[in-house]
Specification:
transferase; 216 residues; three-stranded parallel sheet; globular; Rossmann fold; two-stranded antiparallel ribbon
């Protein structure tokens, strides 16, 4: 991961929460919160909490005595999360936690717009980390055992091609790779490419998440 991939600042956290969360993260937050609640944990550590979509679902499902520490590398993201959820069980902490169709179309469209230096964030982490065998090897090497990986398929939906274009171009660190004065133009280029591929009305595409369970 290059340094700028870690920067979710400025307007990015707000765009992320408004556009990215419903586009991709909401269904998996519900799924993961249900899985965690079944374990009836006393303490939960959430890494890469972002703007808190999973945290909110965990707060609804976990017992009143369960304590949750939600961490993220970016304090601006946590600020948005904390503003949306007030719960004494939750501690917000700044910490480094050390095959999406929309992402593919947008990456290709922006590569044509910036041929000499194409924005590549969507081809790197987090969307580039999907090799199940590699993930299992990394988890095992980190000292975990009983590794189980389940692939969960869902559908990403948006009211128009503009929503995913804004989500990716302005709600992720891809924004940091686009010249500020051309951000609106880049978003339009992405929206146009999505419209050509998926239509001008409501759009949808398949999404997949790998749910990794392990013991340490």
């Amino acid at each position: 991961m290059v340094a700028q991939d870690k920067v979710f600042a400025g307007s990015i956290p707000y765009m992320y929460e408004r556009y990215f969360v419903p586009l991709i993260f909401e269904p998996y937050a519900r799924d993961l919160a249900t899985r965690v609640a079944l374990a009836d944990p006393h303490r939960v550590l959430e890494t890469a909490a972002g703007t808190g979509v999973l945290t909110r679902h965990l707060a609804r499902r976990l017992p009143s005595q369960t304590r949750l520490v939600a961490t993220d590398l970016n304090e601006p993201m946590l600020a948005v999360a904390a503003a949306k959820l007030h719960d004494d069980r939750i501690e917000w902490r700044h910490a480094d936690a050390l095959a999406l169709p929309f992402a593919d179309v947008i990456t290709q469209a922006l590569a044509k717009m910036f041929p000499l230096d194409p924005p590549r964030f969507l081809a790197r982490t987090p969307h580039g980390y999907h090799d199940v065998e590699a993930i299992e090897q990394h988890v095992t090497a980190a000292g975990f055992s009983s590794v189980s990986i389940e692939s969960v398929d869902d559908v990403s939906r948006a009211d128009s091609p503009t929503d995913p274009a804004v989500a990716y171009c302005q709600g992720s660190p891809l924004c940091n790779e686009i010249e500020p004065e051309r951000l609106v133009e880049a978003t339009h280029v992405a929206a146009t490419a999505l419209a050509e591929r998926f239509g001008t009305g409501a759009v949808e595409g398949k999404i997949r998440a790998h749910v990794v369970t392990a013991v340490r």
